[in-house]
């Protein structure tokens, strides 16, 4: 996916994601959309944020906004289930209709390349690159560039002003 003339990824379009089925998909079709990428977990104190993420998705999707959730089990083993179990939990408890990808790691040697890029583009508190917990959010503009990183404590509704600016 990366341009052979420049080995450094430049936009979200340079990456793939894996669906819960194991099928790899290109994120190139996200160019032209405002995208919120979130690492999630089903057994976390922040899990109720799924409701707010779904509300954002429903409110803005017709205007070119998308939420993409990446379940992660790296923080307190709070996402132990299979992809099917995670999808069922999210649908039953939160009516989730935005894309839920296969489980990933967001830190360390096995981190998904997308998350390595996101962390490099938008560092955390005091310049930290590591993701500290579930529900860290990255807002990406229509050109595929990372605009901002949000902490797990930032509720989805608090992102609306930034999303509106990009739409």
UniProtKB/TrEMBL annotation:
GO BP term, pick one: cellular response to oxidative stress
Keywords assigned: Oxidoreductase, Peroxidase
Family statement: Belongs to the glutathione peroxidase family.
Any Pfam family hit: GSHPx
Active-site residues per Swiss-Prot or TrEMBL entry: 44
Name of the featured protein: Glutathione peroxidase
GO MF entries: peroxidase activity
């Amino acid at each position: 996916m990366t341009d052979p003339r420049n080995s450094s990824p430049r936009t979200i379009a340079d990456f793939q994601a894996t669906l819960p089925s194991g099928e790899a998909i290109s994120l190139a079709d996200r160019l032209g959309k405002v995208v919120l990428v979130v690492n999630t977990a089903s057994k976390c104190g922040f899990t109720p944020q799924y409701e707010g993420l779904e509300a954002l998705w429903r409110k803005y999707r017709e205007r070119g906004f998308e939420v993409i959730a990446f379940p992660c089990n790296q923080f307190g083993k709070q996402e132990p289930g299979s992809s099917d179990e995670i999808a069922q939990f999210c649908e039953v408890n939160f009516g989730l209709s935005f894309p839920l990808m296969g489980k990933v790691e967001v830190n360390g040697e096995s981190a998904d390349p997308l998350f390595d890029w996101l962390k490099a583009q938008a560092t955390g508190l005091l310049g930290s690159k590591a993701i500290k917990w579930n529900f860290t959010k990255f807002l990406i503009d229509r050109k595929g560039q990372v605009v901002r990183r949000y902490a797990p404590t930032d509720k989805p509704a608090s992102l609306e002003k930034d999303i509106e600016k990009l739409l």
